[in-house]
Design a protein that fits this description.
- By secondary structure, the chain is an alpha/beta fold.
- The protein is built from 22 helices and 17 strands.
- Strand 12, helix 13 and strand 13 form a beta-alpha-beta unit.
- Helix 2 packs parallel to helix 3.
- The longest helix has 19 residues.
- It binds adenosine-5'-diphosphate and zinc ion.
- The site of zinc ion has 7 residues, from helix 16 and helix 17.
- GO terms for molecular function: 3'-5' DNA helicase activity; ATP binding; DNA binding; four-way junction helicase activity; hydrolase activity; metal ion binding.
- Its cofactor is Mg(2+); Zn(2+).
- This is DNA helicase RecQ.
- Its EC number is 5.6.2.4.
Length: 524
Amino acid sequence: MPLAPDDLDLTLKRTFGYGSFRPLQREIIAATLAGQDVFALLPTGGGKSLCFQLPALVRPGLTVVVSPLIALMKDQVDALQASGVAATFLNSTLDADESRRRLRGLHQGEFKLLYVAPERLMLNGWQDNLRAWQIACLAIDEAHCISEWGHDFRPEYRQLAKLRRALPDVPAMALTATATTRVRADIIEHLKLREPAVFVASFNRPNLTYRVIPKDQPLKQIIDFVRKREDESGIIYCASRAAAERLAESLAGRGFSAKPYHAGLTADERTRHQEEFLRDDARIVCATIAFGMGINKPNVRWVIHHDLPKNIEGYYQETGRAGRDGLPGDCLLLFSAGDIAKQLHFLDEITDEQEQQIARTQLRKIVHYAESAGCRRAELLAYFGETFGVDNCGACDNCLEPRETYDGTLVAQKLLSCVYRIQQNSGFSVGLNHLIEVLTGADTDKIRRWGHDRLTTYGIGAELSRSQWAAVGRELTRLGLLTVAEGEYATLALTRDGLTALVQRTPITLTKPMDTPKAKRVSR
Ligand code: ADP
Ligand code: ZN
């Protein structure tokens, strides 16, 4: 029997104590209760849990919630039980007796909600259990873990496809806070969602301001930033434990209440630092990405990235910890070409070829974001497949102070013609590095072997440094004049527009590069 909308409001109020639904919650709940498969993409804090918890209460049978976050299961279940909901969890933290007790309860139909780690579901006998219990709904939380294209791939999530086969008629829900179009398709495919109702909430965080500045003297830049925000709490993300440690020390040495947080500290230290931060005793946490999972501090006013993040998902999640209370938050990324090189170096160490290629693509996208002269918000949202329909967001550096541009026709012509010449002469395309070596007239084995020192474009680009050329190359890619083919090596090719621009000598406006201040001497 379908529920009247009023019944949902009543349960929302009685059991959860909330007066109204958050965006899309009602629609998601209605779809699953109607027996449809559901895919829901809501930003962190958007209220995903309620989307499977509330329906679990109003429909007959058991809702199974798959979640990778074992550490958070107990909290969630405790909170549900405190509200009078028959919920339980099963994971590796329970001893055999306790597990058995809970299983018995499940067989007797005592529970409405079961939280379970994905690896559990695959143990022998589990599929029989699941068939024996009257399962009303299968909710997969953090569903992006199923995709290698997500930032948090968990191989055990792939097993869920089997589970799905065992329970073909049970309505499934996939929920996540991070999914690009590609990850979305992966989730729908691997979980065999049947014509799912798809819900995508806006990822826009209107109260956050995004800025990227060239990393020059990071400590000084950070101190300048923090000085202007005496009483505010913030997080500084660093690429390594050592960097987080050093930065916290330097800041503390200058009188700021800063604490480090990373996986190299003891559990005690981590808990202590985290609590000091939550209580506002420590204003600043210098952290690696280990910090943040499950942290809910509403009044974080700013987030700085001391180093280039690995991917946009991570960046979005980390900056998303600012301004949870809806009040303004500032996000600052310190960017340097040197950081790209460092990240590329890490990438070389990834042995799995596919994994490496994915990481490379993701890195290219975050670099693209950092160097872009366009609206940061629009760029972030575009990454999540969302169109931001406003020209000027009024809350990012590029909208507030548009970047300086210059007539880049000549440099663009040089670079594009060099791509063209190499392609014509050698019959293959090359990567950006080699291209720049040809342009700047370098003397390398490859150049001699391939005869690229005999090209008319050899050495015509001495006026720019290599990193400046690299920035130009990336901008031409952003402008759609070049395209990157991912393979064993990422190689560059002219697009149709690129060829047209080359042949017709179309004027091209370029942005002054986002590089260390020294590099601002771009010749005009
Ligand atoms: P997510 O998993 O999407 O990050 P949660 O499910 O943990 O988000 O919900 C985030 C917070 O919002 C929780 O404290 C939750 O109790 C609260 N919340 C969820 N739905 C509502 C609602 N309709 N009204 C008010 N608060 C809500
Ligand atoms: Zn903007």
